[in-house]
TrEMBL record:
<dbReference type="GO" id="GO:0006281">
    <property type="term" value="P:DNA repair"/>
</dbReference>
<dbReference type="InterPro" id="IPR036412">
    <property type="entry name" value="HAD-like_sf"/>
</dbReference>
<dbReference type="InterPro" id="IPR050155">
    <property type="entry name" value="HAD-like_hydrolase_sf"/>
</dbReference>
<comment type="pathway">
    <text>Organic acid metabolism; glycolate biosynthesis; glycolate from 2-phosphoglycolate: step 1/1.</text>
</comment>
<dbReference type="Pfam" id="PF00702">
    <property type="entry name" value="Hydrolase"/>
</dbReference>
<feature type="region of interest" description="Disordered">
    <location>
        <begin position="222"/>
        <end position="244"/>
    </location>
</feature>
<protein>
    <recommendedName>
        <fullName>phosphoglycolate phosphatase</fullName>
        <ecNumber>3.1.3.18</ecNumber>
    </recommendedName>
</protein>
<comment type="similarity">
    <text>Belongs to the HAD-like hydrolase superfamily. CbbY/CbbZ/Gph/YieH family.</text>
</comment>
<keyword id="KW-0378">Hydrolase</keyword>
<dbReference type="InterPro" id="IPR023214">
    <property type="entry name" value="HAD_sf"/>
</dbReference>
<dbReference type="GO" id="GO:0008967">
    <property type="term" value="F:phosphoglycolate phosphatase activity"/>
</dbReference>
<dbReference type="InterPro" id="IPR006439">
    <property type="entry name" value="HAD-SF_hydro_IA"/>
</dbReference>
Length: 244
């Protein structure tokens, strides 16, 4: 089946927040508290609830600091300020703007599917800073839809307005559960900047610009087997594009 539409996760795919974890850990350690655990299922569950709009962002941040052990009111105020600052401190990955514009020139429709606290207006300001604010054909936001990945409805919210079937679309992500959600719908999955437990996808790229070398993304009218372009591993295969 041909691919004519590419959906992207936003955070940790288009951009990262490279200072956030270190700054939060520093804040806690300086106050005699342990640094946060990297994979905390309780925190992840509450974060997804906030992404879905079930709890407000200030309430989530307050819960998060209390979860980390912050009890002093002054430290709570300082921590809330830090979390708000770090939420907007983004850095785009190398090659994002050029690669997206090249894919657009090839004729692909591009969309965003994001679990997020940040408003669409705020993300648009970030996108404008690197010149990718006006290339999106669809935008599915968990905060607006009150649905989070890997629920099928959020992927479909980006595809249905375009009249695109999931088997004509690819999803670029970093989290295994989000890639699995896209795969369950029939989308081609592409892994970039993987989480430590993310190992299964149809394709994997080391650099964002390597998307341009994937056989299935050379032209919208071209279909290719996921086995082309590299070695396959994992449950449903990972075809890797090596760095050149």
């Amino acid at each position: 089946m041909t691919i004519n539409t590419i959906l992207f996760d936003a955070g940790d795919v288009l951009y990262s927040k490279p200072r956030r974890d270190a700054e939060v850990a520093r804040f806690l350690v300086e106050r005699g508290l342990p640094a946060p655990a990297r994979k905390d299922p309780v925190e992840r569950g509450m974060r997804l609830a906030a992404h879905a709009g079930k709890i407000g962002v200030p309430e989530f941040f307050g819960w998060l600091l209390a979860h980390y052990g912050v009890t002093d009111p002054d430290q709570m105020t300082e921590g809330l300020r830090l979390l708000r600052e770090q939420q907007g401190d983004v850095q785009f990955f190398d090659g994002v703007a050029d690669t997206l514009h090249a894919l657009k020139q090839r004729g692909f429709q591009l969309g965003i599917v994001t679990n997020t606290f940040n408003s669409r207006d705020e993300k648009t300001r970030w996108f404008r800073s690197v010149g990718i604010h006006d290339i999106w054909d669809s935008y599915a936001d968990s905060r607006e839809l009150q649905i989070v990945k890997p629920e099928p409805e959020i992927y479909l919210a980006a595809l249905t307005p375009l009249g695109v079937s999931p088997d004509n679309a690819a999803f670029v992500g970093h989290a295994q559960y989000e890639l699995d959600g896209a795969k369950a719908l029939g989308m081609t999955t592409i892994l970039f900047n993987p989480d430590v437990d993310a190992t299964r996808a149809d394709f994997s790229v080391e650099r964002f610009a390597d998307l341009l070398a994937l056989p299935v993304l050379r032209q919208p009218a071209q279909a290719a087997s996921p086995s082309r372009g590299g070695r396959q591993t994992g449950q449903y295969g990972v075809a890797r594009v090596s760095e050149r």
